[in-house]
Each structure stands twice: as structure tokens, then as C-alpha cells.
Amino acid sequence: MKKTIYDFTYEQLNTWLMDKGEKSYRTKQIFQWLYRRRITDFAMMSDIKQSLIETFNENFVIDPIKLKQRQASKDGTVKYLFELQDGFLVETVLMQFDYGKSVCVSSQVGCNMGCTFCASGLLKKNRDLSAGEMMAQVMYVQKELDVRDERVSHIVIMGTGEPFDNYDNVMDFLKTVNHDLGLAIGARHLSVSTCGIVPRIKQFAREHVQYNLAISLHAPNDALRSKLMPINQAYPLSELMDALKEYSTLNNRRITLEYILLKDVNDQPEHATQLSKLVKGMNAYVNLIPYNVVDEHGFRAVDVASALKFYDKLMKLGVKSTLRKENGGDIDAACGQLRAKAEGKL
């Protein structure tokens, strides 16, 4: 299986080319062909010598994925199921917002975090995705948008997988997305979500990048969070909150705390009170998320009135909050749902 040329960051490609005796200006040319002109064949690089094109063809592919299934929602959400070169399947989602078009990227094939409400966990992790396989997801969507002269404006790494369990590849992917000669998407339009791997949060804090950090919180106390999210048994809330405070101190960045509302599980007034105490004094806000029901897990979504009631309670307690609009409710919108169906797990 050949690597994809999307795997290279600018610096890595430059080093690879220099080792082949090429001049450094080649790196700029090739990045422009890949990310500005968005070629689909190395032969399209008209100002690159034939011998180098042959070397690329011998060693790399451009696109390591092919579309297996596409679902479009009436609200503009589009879900893609891609097949990788080794036959594994991954999902990607395009979401339409007032502020632009956001792509939700998967970082692993399957997931080992075992969150009890999540469709991604129905299929255990097979492997990490390379930086280029993550980039290929975005590039496929961008090439579709090119037809309408539109562009991807935001990227969230919140699809299948735990990004901080694939840390180096995720960071390389973000470098290329953010690079001026890559997709040139601003750092503050890039978000990484983690279920709470404390050592990686601390490492991320010391990168001093301007990417947004989101935490899958989903419970305001250790007992409930440990039931919902096994990661909490390794890194309980006290350790997680200390790491987040350290991140805020080092970066002066606001953190998003993701909180999926599960009916009669974490949506009661006492949960709102506990949540307010947990986040008091933090540079953070709570993003309340409607639950996309996964029948196999048995959880239910709250109705709009109950969600608004929980939101109002948080706001009265001084917790900055948002209530996310549901996207893709008429398709397999939950992370991992489409893939699990294709694999016969749903």
C-alpha cells in the first residue's frame, strides 16, 4: 500500500525533496498543485520535471480514499462513507452553518475509548489514520465544493476515533490545513476534541498553537462520568480540570466543554448545579448537544423544551452555554452510525 503525498507537512516534503537533490522551491510548487489547484494526477503538474513525476508515481498516491456511500440531509448536512486503500471504512461529515462550511474529520478506524452512548465505539479501533488520510477526507469535500465555488471554512476533528490517541498524525494534519500554502484555514477555525487524555492535553498546551480545544465532558461528577466514559477511570475529573486550567494559563484560550444531553441520565437540575460548580472560574463554555439516538445503546434524546430548561438553568448559574442545533437528524448523523451499518453492526 502506497503512502499518500498528503501525508507530508510542508517541512517534511521539503526535507524529502532535498534528500532527492531537488531545490527547495519545488516544495512550494508541489504544495500549490496539491492544495490550490487540487490536482488528481501527478501528471497534471506541468512545471515539474518528468523524472520527479515518475518518482511520485512510484512512491505515492494522491487520493487514498474512494467514496462508498453519500447521504445528504434536508438541512444541508452531508455524510460520506469512504473506503481506504486497505478496505477499512471511515466517515466524514460536512455541516452547513451561518458562519461557513465545517468538515468533521475522523482520526481513527474505529475507537477504543468505549463511551457507552457513542456509535463509534461499536467498532473497536483497527488502526490510526495517517495525516494524509485525514487530509484526503477534507480534500474530497473541498473538491465537491469547488464546483460551486465554495470552500471549507472550518474543520473539527470530532469524528470516529480519539484524536489525542493519534496525536502526532493529527498535529501534522492540522499543520498542513493551517499552512499558508496548504488549505490556509485559520488556526481559530480548527478544533480538536478529546475525551480527556490528560498527558496529551498537557502536551498540547505546550505546543502554543491557536487551535481550539474541545473536551467531551458529558457528566458533571466522577460516578456518572465513569459509567458513561471509561476514560474517566484513568483520568478523573480533578485531573482533567487541572490539565484544562494549565492549558488555559499557558494559552489564554477558551475551552469548549461538550455535553450531550441524555434523557433522565445527565439532564436533571442537580446535574446543572454540579456542572456549574465544576467549571466555576474556568475560561470555558458548555456546548449542549442533542443526542443522535443509537438504538443499541438504549439512551434517549431530550426534547427541545427540556434542553432549553437545562440551558436556562446553566445560564442562571453563571455558566456560559450554547445549545447546538441538531444536524443531520434525517440521516445516519451520529459518529460511526453509517460505518457501523455498512459493517453490519447496526
Question: Would you give an account of this structure?
Answer:
It is built from twelve helices and 14 strands. It is α/β, with parallel strands linked by helices. It has two domains: 3-61, DNA polymerase, domain 1; 65-342, TIM Barrel. It has a ten-stranded mixed sheet with strand order 3-4-5-6-9-10-11-12-13-14, covered by helices on one side. Strands 1-2 form a two-stranded parallel ribbon. Helix 11 (304-316) links the parallel strand 13 (284-289) and strand 14 (321-323). It is globular. The chain starts with a strand and ends with a helix. The mean pLDDT is 94.
Which secondary structure elements does this structure contain, and how are they paired or packed?
Elements: E1 3-4, H1 10-19, H2 25-36, H3 50-59, E2 60-61, E3 65-72, E4 78-84, E5 89-97, E6 100-105, E7 108-109, E8 127-128, H4 131-146, E9 154-157, H5 167-178, E10 190-194, H6 198-205, E11 212-216, H7 222-228, H8 231-234, H9 237-251, E12 255-260, H10 269-279, E13 284-289, H11 304-316, E14 321-323, H12 337-342
CATH superfamily of the largest domain: Aldolase class I
Order of the strands making up the biggest sheet: 3-4-5-6-9-10-11-12-13-14
Q: Report the helical percentage.
A: 25-40%
| Count of discrete domains | 2
Number of strands: 14
Any key phrases for this structure?
DNA polymerase, domain 1, two-stranded parallel ribbon, TIM Barrel, globular, ten-stranded mixed β-sheet, about 350 residues, 12 helices
